[in-house]
């Protein structure tokens, strides 16, 4: 109040002077303009609010996602040829299918903390129910230095084992990951803590191998070392023993500009085959040694590309003769060639992939024993950044054994079509 009255008094005096001046000049318009200026100057100043130090954390979160819609039964010649881990819509009773419906919430919520949350809305809860939401990723990256070269990843995330396992399904050419390495970790994820290290320039290179369309994995470090539960994603821990994993991978750049990435990885732990995954009457121990090692080699498509991985190890496997689950050796790998051609704003990438796997799949009923041989070839057509179409033909020979079948071998071929919408 003490400040308001003097200001008003000064305004009245000034107004009188303006009126006198206006009377002499006879300019009413001039009078109105001067009074408006004086009114503004005489108003008491509002208390200024403190400036925000930065945007709120929720303003730093970005949202993106993708959807994959498939039809797998064109030119099919054996509707009993299925793959439970690959795509549950393969074979009989498989029509149009939403394979993935992902949303990704991510961002730097502070200078040293990055969060990543990814649910999937195309999960099948049972044989008769589809399109349930399930968590895929939920983790925070804690930067241990200002350049973020040293990071701790805490939560549910991809286990750093294999190139194709780490490669997003949004970027991968083939609709499904190959059995040999994907059988190591169902859904590629688990709960744990992983330490990653990569120099700042190498982190930029990992990022550019994705953003440029070259089908990279993203930044999983030059070195990754960590511990995780070992029962695979969205399953509770079943013993007091965590799995340990280590990976080394580096993307080289040749003088010609060609990118080549080589990697070595391995894990060790003890896996429990739960009672719910074991058929009545199947014997053997419940806890098993679970260890693998793998090598990866990738020549990025510029325009020709090559990708190969091979792994071997020990894990639980159904034994038909004794009707028990036993620790057994496993091995297998895949090789893929591709060619990337840019046509205007579109990208066409034909590819051929062959795979072989012999061993158990610990996450399936009775830790089924598999012998898989498959060759598939097709092309991915990126019409624009929001729409991709993939068409391929696969020829497969799959044999597996569990308590219910004791031995089931199916051969055949089919054409598969996938539409992917990115947003």
Report on the structure:
With 423 residues, the protein is mainly beta. The protein folds into two domains: 4-42; 57-422, Beta Barrel (Porin). 13% of the residues lie in helices and 49% in strands. The chain is built from five helices and 17 strands. A 16-stranded antiparallel barrel has the order 1-2-3-4-5-6-7-8-9-10-11-12-14-15-16-17. Strand 15 and strand 16 (387-401) form a beta hairpin. Helix 1 packs antiparallel against helix 2 (28-42). The longest helix has 22 residues, at 4-25. The chain starts with a helix and ends with a strand. The relative contact order is 0.11. The model is unreliable at 1-28 and 38-52 (pLDDT under 50).
CATH class of the largest domain: Mainly Beta
Computed over alpha carbons, the radius of gyration is 31 Å
Please name the CATH topology of the largest domain: Porin
Overall morphology = globular
Derived from helix and strand composition plus strand pairing, the structural class reads: mainly beta
Number of domains: 2
Helicity range: 10-25%
Strand content: over 45%
The unreliable regions are 1-28, 38-52
Taken in chain order, the helices and strands follow as HHEEEEEHHEHEEEEEEEEEEE
Q: Please provide the count of β strands.
A: 17
CATH architecture field of the largest domain? Beta Barrel
Distance between the termini: 56 Å
What is the CATH superfamily label of the largest domain?
Porin
Give the biggest sheet.
16 strands, antiparallel, barrel
Tell me the number of helical segments per DSSP (H or I, 4 or more residues long): 5
What is the arithmetic mean of pLDDT?
89
- Widest sheet, order of strands: 1-2-3-4-5-6-7-8-9-10-11-12-14-15-16-17
